[in-house]
Amino acid sequence: VPTNTAIVITFNRKMAQNSITAPTTVQLSAGGSPVAMQRDASGDPSFIFQPQAALTANTLYTLVVKGGASGVKDEVGNTMADDFTSTFTTGAGPDDSPLEVVSVTPADAAAGVSQVTTVTVTFNKPIQPSRLFLSYPGTAGTFRLSKYADLSFPETGKLDLTANPTVTFTLDPAKTLELERTYHLRLTGGASGVKAVSGATLAADFNSTFTTQGPDNADGTLADLRAASGVCAIRVKGVTMTFFRDQPNNWKGFFVQKDQAGPAIFVVTGNTKPLFPIYPDPSASGYPTIDLTATRVIDDSGFKEVTAFSMTRGATTLDLKTVRETLVQVISDETLGVEHESEYVQVDGTLGNYKLGSSAENREFDLTYGTARKVKLKVSQFGIMDPMGLANGSKVRVTAPLQKDQNGYFLKPYVYTTEQAMTAADLDLPANYDYALDIVKLAP
Fold first, then answer.
1. What angle do CA 59, 65, 66 make, to 5 degrees?
2. How far is CA 83 from CA 86, 186, 225, 293, 358, in A?
3. Which of 163, 167, 183, 284 has its CA 20 to 30 A from that of 394?
4. Under DSSP, is residue 422 helix (H, G, I), strand (E, B) or coil?
5. pLDDT at 424
6. What digits encode the pLDDT tens for the residues 291-315?
């Protein structure tokens, strides 16, 4: 063993780090003389102990990891039944060979890679966990995987060093890689880059690329997409982004549908807007058509959501008149349910049974329409309810997608265009379509 070796100890579970210290519970000695060591616990359950001075050449060393009540403990307090003991003999001197990457998976220039692949890198010697890390605000990681050649906006996930010198990167559970995309991997070399426990560094940056698979169904439909569950690879072309609002809740995203009768589906954007947002007044900017490639679909309380996707803008943009007449489904006397899920619907009705709801952004009414049919309406108190003077007994027209949470289906308008009550006949005139976004009071 080289005289500049470090001691790498790997347990079978996360540990109570304050129980793993040298020389209290981890002891290295030669001929009864203890060796002073510094600990790196950043790879827990792997711990690296670096001797503070070079070990003596051609010498037998004994490592003891203490068990029992006074020994090492896992994070919930379990102990090892007995001491762990290991020996090794040093060689004639230090290891001064450079740090190198032995293999990488997916292999460099690999094609057809799964969008949920893990990335595995194996070095020729154990590395210091503290010198291999992902990017965080203000600091570029020494391990970066990105769909951009300049390594900007690297993927987020987790590095696993329990098999050091093999390192595995796993994407965040809710994410997938984009389809038909080349990804770039870079491990930073040089003095500030990845470092072995022996002190060796990569001579230069290590770079590798791979390309993800194409969609299983390159010309699918929204029906195909709504039937999918979990990881998928479906592209649907020419669908319309029918409804997006910059809303302060968990439904941040947009809806897509093909025609009035659906099917439609909700696309989750997280805390970001779409690449080409619809503004609060869609009549000013239009409704873009898109080609959507989905890579993950979940069923949230029966509500289908696309949670990982890429998209390109289509060649056409629909105006409000086209959307109103070809995508909005007028509901007169039928129960809103699963067959209307995510569809852009229009309902004329009367407000009643006011409740505070979950917050000022979600005051609740029952919207009664048709033959005593009801659907829940959620509105912002300060953004819509108060300025419009909405109360029990108010008659309104709501044009919005049908959404669902754990309490059932609901409609939620986000903007209003006038506080003036208008007749249904006037709102049905193309020249007045913009007044119905997303809620308007109906004149008696």
1. 130
2. 10, 41, 56, 55, 55
3. 284
4. strand
5. 95
6. 999 989 998 877 888 988 888 888 7
